[in-house]
């Protein structure tokens, strides 16, 4: 059951990822990205990372992508135009074999480096609850967590300052 | 296998009840609004217009399903699906009542049970976060509908809606975090269970009466305001403001595609009311202890309803009602009596139905509040709406959360 669900959601994620690149219209690409993120959330859930899955949905699929879609709609971005064929012909024919070769090398490396006993077992990981995450964030990783928060705050302030300048 | 069958039965039951409730919620809204505005409301189809939702559904299904020529077809057709899907999913994690124990019984030589289950589809550890996540995705339906319609009014409606929903999601999440902080869980069932019992024997230990007194109440008010905005209801129904935007994001939609948006809106209302009930109003716990007779309230209400329908049936006001009303009145009186008998005579059934009654009563009370507000308040201006969210609601929610966190840390 778990393996079947994994296959389904992995397939959805991959198809959405490819679609994201292939589509020419920004809205289609954005929607594919949302689909990929939703499938990833389901995969996290399968692995036992409940909180991460929920955060993925709330933050990425819910909030950030809404902003993306919002901006695309506001700017009324149209279908992107294909650049005239130049160097592209070489990439067109060599691209697919190279991609297959790259995937093969990566698969071989993963197979040889990671021992077979380290395979993922669904439902074995039980430290992904909100309680565990919260405890880890506020005890073991308190300093990195707070530093990241300050960093994000600085980024927000920077964004506001930059936006202000443009108005004047 | 038993689990699968049970889940499918429960899902079918919940879906059927929910969809019927959505149709009748619309009838309730029209009727209550009409009475607020000193009108009668729908009264042609069936007694008191009770069959109006059915007629509406038939009308919407049989209407021509047309697609305007200038729309981007895929997204235009996808949008209502997205809206309805993400409106219906959250119901899966909402618990309606306590445990359900059905002893073993035999049907046609086949022994079924004993069945032990809970009155909900599934109990997630992260139920609250799940609802936040899924309802956050619902905005794509509206935004996409506005964009795909290729119409400036629709686009404005969609843009307004997405801006409004991301703005009000923040205060809503902060208001939801307040009871979570005090009750220390993310699962709805645990949250409701920790609200059982009474303070001094008669004040229910609901979240709004618990903890540092004014803060939980403030959180409830903030949640309700944000929820009104999240569901695009008056006074925050800017995305479909008819005097500015024709009909907003669903201007170009007709027949069942329009109905899908309508359904999604009402379903979101129901979800939000359920969440408010579970987080703040004690879920299925009665408003005062059974020792003081709270278990007599549902029978009293049903007897009253039965008597009223009976007296209506005896004295029809119009000539046409002389034939329809007596039947309906007698049938509903009979139903009420049967229901009462079940409640009274079988304590096991009564124990299972009582939580359901209180949960539904609270949800309906909040839904009535929605309709009441719609009949009372005028619409915000768009800049007021945004500045209200960012300069009032959000800071108040943060300060409120801070005080509750302080209280939790101190105790």
What does this structure look like?
The complex is a heterodimer of chains A (168) and B (411). Chain A is mainly alpha-helical and 168 residues long. Chain A has 2 domains: 2-79 and 90-128, Four Helix Bundle (Hemerythrin (Met), subunit A); 129-168. Chain A has helices at residues 2-22, 26-47, 50-75, 88-113, 130-138, 142-167. In chain A, helix 1 (2-22) packs antiparallel against helix 2 and helix 2 runs antiparallel to helix 3 (50-75). The N and C termini of chain A lie far apart (59 Å). Chain B is mainly alpha-helical and 411 residues long. Chain B has a domain at 66-90 and 124-285 and 346-410. Chain B has helices at 2-36, 52-62, 73-88, 127-137, 139-148, 152-183, 188-193, 213-230, 242-245, 255-280, 297-314, 321-345, 347-376, 382-410, and strands at residues 99-102, 105-107, 110-112, 115-118, 198-199, 203-204. In chain B, the strands form 3 sheets. In chain B, strands 1-4 form a two-stranded antiparallel ribbon. Chain B has a two-stranded antiparallel ribbon with strand order 2-3. The N and C termini of chain B lie far apart (47 Å). The mean pLDDT of chain B is 81.
Question: In summary, what is this structure?
Answer:
Chain A has 168 residues and is mainly α. Helix content of chain A is 77%, strand content 0%.
How far apart the termini of chain A lie comes to 59 Å
**How would you describe the oligomerization state of the chains in this entry?**
heterodimer
Shape of chain B: globular
Could you name the ranges of chain A where pLDDT drops below 50 across 5 or more consecutive residues? Answer: none
Output the radius of gyration of chain A: 21 Å
Shape of chain A: globular
- As a whole number of angstroms, the C-alpha radius of gyration of chain B is 23 Å
Q: Main beta sheet of chain A: strand number and arrangement?
A: none
Mean pLDDT of chain B, nearest integer?
Answer: 81
SSE string of chain A:
HHHHHH
Range of helix content of chain B: 55-70%
